[in-house]
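ok so for the tutorial part 2 we go from a plain amino acid sequence to predicted structure tokens. step 1 is just haveing the sequence, like this:
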Amino acid sequence: MAPQTLLPVLVLCVLLLQAQGGYHDKKRMQKTQLSPEIKVCQQQPKPYLCKHLCESHRDCQANNICCSTYCGNVCMSIL
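step 2 — the prediction. this is what the tokens look like for a chain of 79 residues:
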């Protein structure tokens, strides 16, 4: 491949990576994959709950479960 064509191909690759959220977003998404015990929440949480993230049910207080929402995994009441 000629050197004149390598630069446009490289620029195109960088632009495509940015359009998909970038390298760091892909790494973060791999870390935030749902564990087998964490389900999607039945209700949307209040915005203040998004500050208290969890990784498993053990991270939550009594009568709360860890579930997945738009802002990450949060503890929500089961009552």
